[in-house]
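I am still learning, so can you show me any protein sequence you like together with the matching structure tokens, please?
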Amino acid sequence: MLRLTAGDEARDVRLEKGSAELDGRTVRFREIRRDGALVALEIGGEVHPVRVVRDGDRALVACRGSVYEMRRAPATAAKGPRRGSAGEHGAGLRAPMPGRVRRILVRRGEKIAKGDVVLVLEAMKMEHAIRAPQDGIVTKLDHRDGDLVEAGTVLAEIAADGT
């Protein structure tokens, strides 16, 4: 059993050769490899390019503009926001993987809405939009364009509006 997270959502996933079970639904896929590395998944006749990076006990998977984190987890793990995730009030937006801050699109003190792009992080030869998980005010923004960051680094903090 694996734990799949993306932003503040988390799901348990059971992987088998050629299929994945997610929320009680089975999805069949075909792996596409080049020189032994996974480069794409074919699902329902559609090819989805992927990039996978291992970081300790987790794998980061970039696909279709989103980054997903996979870890081995007990099957009984709770679904929903994970502790310390960006979905909690006042929590920091963390770098999903090592990379370079390309563009910061907000300022400290600025009021933003859920889904607004806070900054753009370049990682794995792709640009990743780091979006606000909630409406609020940017309370912390300690990086500048060009800064290198490690996976898990707090990129910004957003306090719920009115706090």
